Amino acid sequence: MQYAAYVFDAYGTLFDVHAAVRRHADAIGPDGQLLSELWRAKQLEYSWVRTLMGAYADFWQLTEQALDFALRKFPSADPSLKAKLLDAYWRLDCYPEVPAVLKALKASGARLAILSNGSPEMLHAAVKSAALDQVLDDIYSVDAVRRFKTDPAVYDMVTTDRRLYPAAISFQSSNRWDIAGATRFGFRTVWINRSNQPEEYRDFPPALILPSLEALVTAG
């Protein structure tokens, strides 16, 4: 089935959130992977807590605060690397299959968009760095509603702007909680399970589970 629009989460789905730490792995030392995982976990935790509190701060602020915590948690990593790590986050690598998949979907006539917790500045920088600006039609940031995923208002930005029913939109994310929220909203959802995580949120199942975006073109 051809969908009117294919909407992608950004971080972890199109862009590798651990690329920033890998870029400076030698300088960080043996705790680099653990630091990167904690940085990501706290970044998301802060977004959920702030949405529940009604105390919005943009994703860049949360990214910096999460890195501060991770660096304190792993004192083996030199805290002076903070500036380099944050700079690298503006230029995260996209996953290898992403450019070809987006081009193929674009050629089929579908509209392509990002729907992300990221701030507009973060998203535009990442898209430009990965040379995806020529294939994406829209970039939706939660800044517009000042709430983070999985608040329904985030997903509603796409349906309202494109004047489409949720079922006409295929939403792809590597984050299972994001897939649960999008499924609850009514999108057709595809979980990109890159790290072979076990299933959860069984009452909000995805339509498809794929190991990468590569099979999306043939899966429809």
Query: What is the H-and-E element order?
Result: EHHHHHHEHEHEHEEH
How far the N terminus sits from the C terminus, by CA atoms, comes to 5 Å
Count of extended strands: 6
Tell me, rounded to a whole number, the average pLDDT. 96
Strand content: 5-15%
Q: What's the story with the biggest beta sheet?
A: 6 strands, parallel
Fraction of helical residues: 40-55%
Q: How do the strands of the widest beta sheet line up side by side?
A: 3-2-1-4-5-6
Quickly give the structural class: alpha/beta
Alpha plus pi helix count = 10
Q: What integer value in Å does the Rg equal? A: 17 Å
Could you explain the architecture of this structure?
With 220 residues, the protein is an alpha/beta fold. It is 45% helix and 12% strand. The chain has a six-stranded parallel β-sheet with strand order 3-2-1-4-5-6, sandwiched between helices. Helix 7 links the parallel strand 2 (111-116) and strand 3 (138-141).
Secondary structure: elements and pairs:
Layout: E1 5-8, H1 19-23, H2 25-28, H3 32-53, H4 59-73, H5 82-89, H6 98-107, E2 111-116, H7 120-129, E3 138-141, H8 152-162, E4 169-173, H9 176-185, E5 188-192, E6 208-210, H10 216-219
